[in-house]
Please model this.
Amino acid sequence: MARKKIVAGNWKMNMTPSQAVELVNTLKPLVVSDDVEVVYCVPAIDIVPVVEAVKGSNVTVGAENMYFEDKGAYTGEISAEMLVDAGVKYVIIGHSERRDYFKEDDALLNKKVKKALEAGLVPILCCGESLEQREMGVTLDWIRLQIKSDLQGVSASQVAGMVIAYEPIWAIGTGKTATTEQAQEVCKAIRDTIAEIYDASTADAVRIQYGGSVNAANANELFSQPDIDGGLVGGASLKADFGKIVNYK
Ligand code: PGA
Model:
């Protein structure tokens, strides 16, 4: 089964609402593609204007985070239902910046993944090793542990519709991309892990992105690998270059 490529921008804490609308309009003609699904994961405050601004285009909107509770006294948090009602389709869960700066652990991320799926959102679940872990040779063990922990209690059919992003922490925002071989090796290991926990058809269906200093020059080689189904793009998603990444061929 052919998996449709998916290229998602992760805007992080960039773009005020008015800048966001301007960026969407600038990128609109550049990101047109029949072969690639295009997603903008934007700051919470930009969601409503961006959903409006992408109307009629091939772009869908994602959030960068959410909370797992339905509603109530969780000051500052946003629920899955709020995202769905605002027109959001995807939600990034477990980005290394959230794991590191905001101390989100696998137990919490597992709850978020389950709630997102229950609400009808597609999680973009992030995993990735630090430089220290890579140098110690524990990358694949670490990634398997993250995936298994974060997907506990998630069904095969739910996983089949998900996106998993492999993002080596040392490659994020550093301009240091993983080599094509490194990226393919880990994305394949993720797919093998899904086959091991679930089955071959689930592993064949789940989409696995690479993220970490993806740019217009390296996208083609990365996205041409057999187990890499697109990218999660930070810095380069805020520029016209994003159009070149979407149209990487
Ligand atoms: P980068 O970020 O493309 O700026 O390295 C990727 C990410 O953190 O998702």
Strands lie at 5-10, 36-42, 59-63, 90-93, 122-127, 163-166, 207-211, 230-233. The mean pLDDT is 97.
